[in-house]
Amino acid sequence: MEKLVKSAQAERTGIDLFLTEEHIELLKSIMTWKKVKAGSTLFMEGEAAGQLYYIRSGRVKLRKSTEDGKELLLTIQRRGDLIGEFGGLGGEDHNYTAETADACEIGVIQGKELEGLMTRHGDLAVQFIKWFGLKQRIMESRFRDLLLYGKTGALASTLIRASNTCGVKNENGILLNIKLNHTELGEMIGATRESVNRMLTSLKEQGTIEMKEGKINILQMEDLRMMCGCPEEGHCPNEICRL
């Protein structure tokens, strides 16, 4: 029997983890729901931001352009995640591009309506601020891994984060219950597809990972932790160590 990794894929995910049932219903009461085809752009980097997007189903890729014209895949957001810029000051621009990886059902929230809702419900505003701070810590930790441990360490860190986000325990290790192709992994760590292929091949030869039905199965988590200076299990909250 396969078992979900603790905290990786609970019934509640994303911002829902911070909210009560009442808060969730309040938030959904100001959403406009729409279905979006795979490969659609929700918003572009640099565009004026006035809306947030709640993912009810499907996956959304967040991309950012580098100064030399390359694109970095920041993360892949899933059910329960809320994306977009919200500073509460107006005049915000999107810092990244959001593109649907699958057919998605999205709840659109107007920034002004969210401001009004939080003005009336201070407890919701407090939880929202906590969630927003967590988002910042997740992104900062990903950039830290990339800067300090190079491409190999960043790949190891990405696999660890994926295990906390969508990992499923099995008899041999932890299966990543998401198909990440070499191009996507490369975009996440700023490496070419060929480089990722070489690194994954090396990890397979070392017995650190294996491929199972097109997905990555982590056999030796400790090997990955050593590659990216990851502390022992339990010292880094899964809420931060995630995609």
Strand order of the largest sheet: 1-10-11-13-12
Rough shape? Answer: globular
Q: What is the average of the pLDDT values?
A: 86
Strand-residue proportion: 15-25%
Sheet/helix structural class: alpha+beta
Helix segment tally:
6
Query: How far is it from the N-terminal to the C-terminal residue, by CA?
Result: 25 Å
Largest sheet: 5 strands, antiparallel
Oligomer: single chain
How many runs of DSSP E, i.e. beta strands?
13
List the secondary-structure elements in sequence, H or E: EHEEEEEEEEHHEEHHEEH
Uncertain stretches: 1-10
Estimate the helix proportion, in percent.
25-40%
Instruction: Work out the radius of gyration.
Output: 18 Å
Describe the structure.
It is built from six helices and 13 strands. By secondary structure, the chain is of the alpha+beta class. The strands form three sheets. Strands 1-10-11-13-12 form a five-stranded antiparallel beta sheet. It has a four-stranded antiparallel beta sheet with strand order 2-9-4-7. Strands 3-8-5-6 form a four-stranded antiparallel beta sheet. β5 and β6 form a beta hairpin. The protein is globular and about 55 Å long. The two termini are 25 Å apart.
Sequence-ordered SSE layout with sheet pairings:
Elements: E1 3-4, H1 21-29, E2 31-36, E3 41-43, E4 51-57, E5 60-65, E6 71-77, E7 82-83, E8 97-100, E9 104-110, H2 111-120, H3 122-166, E10 167-169, E11 174-176, H4 182-189, H5 193-205, E12 209-212, E13 215-218, H6 221-227
Antiparallel strand pairs: 1-10, 2-9, 3-8, 4-7, 4-9, 5-6, 5-8, 10-11, 11-13, 12-13
